[in-house]
Q: What sequence folds into this?
């Protein structure tokens, strides 16, 4: 096997679509250091494990000696990527975009080699464009071609508005590839159309066409839909070690193997061998490895120990938060409703959520299930120390 074949075998791993492979092989065989483009629009302040899939692939290219070009779409964010959307994205302010971009980089470099990453902002070139430049770019695409996109076609058929500026988005993303002279662009499967536009615009400009490689969209914690904050089925890269470990342990056994493949880059042969072991043990190893990746090996090991204390040995975590009675109730109060006490800890999003947990039988106090959201707790109860569990992962103490 030649070096080019070996590299392509690794590049191909987990890929959903890989176009332009033969051209890419020739460049690798000729000793070219590839320029590998990945664009991200800083629409929110934090990244999720879904982003980790493409960042892992970009890191593989770095490890093979190629140049990772991370494009921060600070200009294109002002339009909003319509990929997979049934409506237009909300418009962010320049300040929000810049702040989000900073946090994106902080998180991205937990996976990427910072020293081997070329960071570019597409405002570098689009910020200098005139209206004439934009009109020239628009001439390179027809409305009929735009409506080949599944999301645009569905919106057009259902008479859901599509703004002209949304039609410009794929062209602007494609123009990034011309400016950067990328050899390959990677992204999720929802980016295939946009990436192909880049390939076409490079051809129109007389440049070598970029290869296109798309990665699967990571399934979320529900095991059904793609990981998304909109579905509340996500794990953020900046989650606490406790939350990260607990969320990973909540996934199904079937989803676990997808995470091993896409997040830890395990090969099919490695996963087949792991399936011979007990699923619970393999899930603990997955959670430990991913938590360690973002928080360090000691944190991964600690969270596993704490998980086993709670779910295997019936103990409580060593580090549960402790609140004094006087911090949670009005001065001089001798009693208060459990719902009000839990709300005062600020550990829950709302009283409605607390009531929901109680009604579902998910709240215990000193290991006894609570079924009444209006249950009154007295100061004398707190004097004995109350250990409250709400849901699977939230524990706290109330003391006098």
A:
């Amino acid at each position: 096997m030649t070096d080019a074949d070996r590299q392509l075998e690794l590049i191909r791993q987990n890929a959903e679509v890989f176009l332009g492979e033969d051209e890419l092989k020739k460049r690798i065989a000729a000793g070219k250091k590839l320029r590998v483009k990945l664009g991200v629009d800083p629409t929110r302040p934090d990244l999720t494990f879904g982003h980790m899939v493409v960042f892992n692939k970009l890191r593989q290219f770095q490890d093979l000696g190629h140049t990772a070009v991370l494009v921060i779409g600070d200009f294109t964010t002002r339009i909003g990527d319509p990929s997979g959307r049934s409506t237009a994205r909300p418009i962010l302010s320049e300040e929000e975009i810049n702040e989000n971009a900073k946090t994106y980089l902080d998180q991205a470099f937990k996976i990427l080699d910072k020293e081997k990453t070329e960071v570019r902002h597409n405002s570098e070139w689009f910020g200098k464009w005139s209206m004439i430049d934009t009109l020239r770019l628009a001439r390179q695409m027809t409305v009929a071609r735009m409506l080949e996109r599944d999301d645009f076609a569905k919106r057009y058929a259902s008479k859901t508005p599509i703004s002209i500026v949304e039609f410009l988005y794929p062209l602007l993303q494609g123009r990034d590839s011309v400016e950067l002279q990328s050899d390959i662009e990677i992204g999720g499967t929802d980016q295939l159309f946009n990436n192909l536009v880049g390939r076409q615009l490079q051809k129109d400009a007389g440049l070598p066409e970029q290869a296109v490689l798309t990665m699967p969209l990571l399934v979320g914690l529900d095991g059904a839909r793609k990981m998304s904050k909109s579905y509340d089925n996500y794990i953020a890269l900046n989650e606490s070690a406790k939350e990260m470990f607990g969320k990973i342990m909540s996934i199904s056994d079937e989803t676990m193997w997808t995470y091993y493949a896409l997040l830890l880059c395990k090969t099919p042969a490695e996963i087949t061998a792991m399936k011979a072991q007990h699923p619970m043990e393999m899930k603990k190893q997955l959670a430990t490895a991913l938590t360690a990746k973002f928080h360090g090996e000691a944190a991964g090991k600690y969270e596993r120990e704490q998980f086993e204390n709670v779910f295997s040995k019936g103990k409580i975590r060593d580090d549960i938060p402790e609140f004094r009675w006087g911090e949670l109730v009005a001065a001089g109060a001798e009693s208060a409703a459990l719902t009000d006490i839990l709300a005062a800890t600020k550990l829950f999003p709302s009283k409605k959520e607390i009531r929901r947990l109680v009604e579902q039988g998910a709240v215990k106090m000193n290991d006894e299930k609570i079924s009444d959201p209006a249950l009154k707790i007295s100061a004398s109860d707190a004097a004995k120390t109350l250990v409250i569990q709400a849901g699977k992962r939230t524990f706290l103490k109330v003391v006098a």
Remarks:
- The radius of gyration is 25 Å.
- The mean pLDDT is 92.
